Please model this.
Amino acid sequence: MKFDYTEHKICGHFLSVLINDDPTGLSDEDLEQFELWYDITHTPSSHYEVMSEEGRFAFCEVCDLMGDVYTVRQYFPAFEEVTQ
Model:
């Protein structure tokens, strides 16, 4: 099976809930924003990988605020063209 990916820019405080499903430390508002973003972007069989070890100051896709943002790749099964 082949995989494709898309990259997201996400604040560091959302990484624990994304990677480990652990919302500890997130406010109710942050968790609500994350869940909304996740419901929109997540696909079945997705896998996430943090690509950078250090955050850089930029806009977060989840909360639309500036913060220490990390590049996260979302891998998912690629659609293969069927040729006859």
Remarks:
- The two ends are 19 Å apart (CA to CA).
